[in-house]
Design goal:
Layout (H helix, E strand, L loop, with lengths): L1 E6 L5 E4 L6 E3 L26 H10 L3 E4 L23 E3 L4 E3 L5 H11 L2 E6 L6 H12 L5 H8 L10 E4 L14 H18 L4 E4 L12 H10 L5 E8 L6 H5 L1 H22 L7 E9 L2 H6 L7 E2 L10 H16 L4 E7 L8 E3 L5 E3 L3 H10 L3 E3 L7 E4 L3 E4 L1 E8 L4 E8 L6 E6 L7 E9 L19 E2 L7 E5 L2 E6 L3 E9 L1
Parallel strand pairs: 1-21, 3-4, 3-13, 4-7, 6-12, 7-8, 8-9, 9-10, 10-11, 11-13
Antiparallel strand pairs: 2-16, 5-6, 14-15, 16-19, 17-18, 19-20, 20-26, 21-25, 22-23, 22-26, 24-25
Helix pairs in contact: 3-4, 3-5, 5-6, 6-8, 8-10, 10-11
The structure holds alpha-L-arabinofuranose.
The site of alpha-L-arabinofuranose (AHR) has 11 residues, from loops.
Amino acid sequence: MLRARVALNPAAVVAPVSRRTFGSFVEHMGRCVYTGIYEPGHPLADEDGFRTDVLALARELGVTMVRYPGGNFVSGYRWEDGVGPREQRPRRRDLAWRSIETNEVGIDEFAKWAEKAEVEIMYAVNLGTRGVQEALDVHEYVNHPEGTALSEQRRANGAEKPYGIKLWCLGNELDGPWQTGHKTPEEYGLLAAGTARALRQAEPDLELVACGSSSSSMPTFGTWESTVLEHAYDLVDYVSCHAYYEEHDGDLGSFLASAVDMDFFVDSIVATADAVGARLKSTKKINLSFDEWNVWYLSRFQNAPLPEEWKVAPPVIEDQYNVADAVVVGNLLISLLRHSDRVTAACQAQLVNVIAPIMTEPGGPAWKQTIFHPFAKTAALAKGDVLRVHIDTPTYETAKYGAAPLVDAVATHDASTGDVTLFAVNRDVANPVEFSVDLSAFGAGLTVAEAWTLADDDVYAKNSKDAPERVVLRPIGEVPGGSVALDGSTATLTLPNVSWSAIRFTRA
Ligand code: AHR
C-alpha cells in the first residue's frame, strides 16, 4: 500500500479563506449568456428572462463573484450597445468568437442577474479597441450616483442606485497575439497605468486588476508582468493569471499533476511582482487574481476552425467533463487555497455551457457536469483560515513535470466552529493511497462530520442530460477503495486512485 502523511496545526495559518476564491466567469461567448443564464422563452424563465434553474445551480455551486462580460469578447465590446431600449440596441459582429452579438443582455441586465445570484460583479473594460475614455464612461454609468449624463442615463434605464462595482479588470489577455488590440508589455503597461489613474480620479478605492500572462507557456511569461508593473505598480492592486489544462495524448499522469503548473505560475508571478516592488522600494504587495482557470480541451478547439457563418450564440467549446477532469479541478482549487496569502480572487472559466460546470439545453433541463462537485463542496466547506501543510508523500514520474507528489492536499480551520476540513487528491492512476492525518494539535474530541469522494472505476465517465448523476460525490466509505477512520487524534484515510476528497472534522 502507498502511504502519505500530514500533521495539521491551527497555528500554521497561510491566510483567511478569501470568499473571492470561488469566483466564476460569464462571457458573451457561445451559449453562456444566451440560452445559458438568459432564455426568455424558457418555461423556467423569470420575469426578466433569466433561467431560474441556472440561478439555483449557480447558488448551489457557491459562486461568490462573477467576471463579466469577457474574455476575448470584451476586447471588441462597446458597452453602450447593451443599454437602453432593447429594440434599439445594435447587432454587432463579435470578432473573438465569430458570432453575432444581439446586445439583448448588457450591464443593466447582468447586474439584475448578479443580484438574484447573490454574487459580486468583477467588471472587465475594453482596452483592446478602446481606452481611458470608454473605461471612464462605463464607470460613470455603473458607479456614479446621479447628476451626470451617464449616471442619469442609467437611472432613466431603470437603475436608480449605482451598482457599486469595486473590482475592475483593465482589459483581457492583451499579451496574447489572438487578442483584438494585442499589445506589447510596454504599450499595455502605459495604457493600464493611464486607465487606472483615471479610474482612481473618479473613485479612489476601486480594486484594479492589470492583465498578466494568458498561460505560463507564453514566451513573455514573467517579463510581461515585470514591464507592466514597472508602469502600474502603485496604481493597481492585482495582476491576473489565466491557465487552462487538458489531458494530452492519453498522458493521464501529467494531466493529474496540472496543479504543479498552477503552483509554479503563482510562485513565479508572486516573485516577479515582489521583485518589481523591491526595485521600486515599495512596501505595497500586488496580489494575484487567477481570473480564468479550468480544464479546457483547447487543442480540440484550436484544431477546429470557427464556423464560417455568423450566428447568434452558436455552441462554442461545450466540453463534456469526466471524472479525471473533476479531480484536476478539485486539485486546482487546492492550489488556489494554499496560495490564499497572495491569490485573493479567482474565477473558474466559465459558468454555463462554455467549458462550464453547468449545462443547459435550450427549452430543456439544466444539469451538473462532474466539475461542479469539487467546486461546490470546496466553496461550502473551506471556511476560516487556510493552514500551511507539509505532506510527506511518495512521488511519481510525469512526462511534463518530472517527479510530482502523489498526494496533494490543503486544510482549513474555522476557529468559530472548531471545524477542520481537509481537501485531498490521490493522483495515482491505478492504486489507492493510505493518508494518515495527525490532528493532535487541535486537542481531543474531533470527530468525522462528513467525508466525500469523487472517484469512479471509469475515470472517463461523464454526466449528460440523460444521466446527470452518473458522477456525483459519494461518502468516502461507499466508494470502492475508499475509507476514513479516526483513532484518537489520527485520521486514516484511504484515497482511491484518481480521486478528490473533502473530509470535515468537528467537535463532538
Ligand atoms: O474562457 C475562454 C477564453 O479563454 C476567454 O475568452 C479568453 O480570455 C481566454 O483565452
